[in-house]
Amino acid sequence: MTKTEINAKLDEIIEFSGCERYIDTPVKRYSSGMTVRLAFAVAAFLEPDILVIDEVLAVGDAEFQKKAIGKMQDISKGEGRTVLFVSHNMAAVKSLCTRGIVLGNGGVVFDGDVNNAVDTYLYDDKNKSWFYKNNYNIEDKSFIRSVKVITSSKKGIHNFKEDIKISIEVYCKSKITDPAISYQILNSDNIPLVHELNLNTENSFCQETGIFRLTSTIRKPKLYQGIYCLLYTS
Question: How far is CA 178 from the centre of its chain?
């Protein structure tokens, strides 16, 4: 921008960034959040043909994130310019974008409708069960050997009128004080819907070496049709 353009838009940039109180403070004293807010505000008023935004919504409070999404929507829809939004926030991607490109191993994995792009990013196999899992171990003292989501269907499809049982098998290499296992069920936007804080209800659990099995039952969860993931920790 020219000096005239900067002067004309300076007040709008400062107001949008929310850094009015600290605008005379050297930028080197800004927090990372304040720096990104100010940088995004400047970029948003540059009027480029293509605006590239990389994870700007990873910082800042909810109010700023809402403002940032609104500004990008104004730029893309209201002003007819292109916004290239790079993010791992699937909810933000769905609300802002109309086209999605999924990258993997240095190449394009998918290019098309944003909803299909999000599904491709989260679930690379459409025929798999509803749930996926990630193993997690603590200090090499114990590890989760297996996690099973038990439904009425062998394919993992759940009828919302039925209970879901989650069976966890743990191998303890040595005695653990106050052991605990927790899990979450998240929807396709990575929003937690079910959170079990502590599955340990047995005094004998991991008080000696061996294999232990824990079962948790979710009573008739009201889940809409879709794909969900199961994340667990020990």
Answer: 30
Cα distance between residue 202 and residue 181, in whole Å: 12
CA distance 120 to 97: 15
CA atoms within 13 A on the CB side of 100: 24
Spatial CA neighbour of 234 closest among 165, 123, 151, 146? 146
DSSP at 2: -
Helix (H), strand (E) at residue 16: helix 3-17
pLDDT of residue 135: 40
Name residue 107's beta-bridge partners: 104
pLDDT at residue 6 is higher than 90: no
Evaluate if pTM is beyond 0.85: no
Please indicate whether residue 146 or residue 98 has the higher confidence score (pLDDT).
Answer: 98
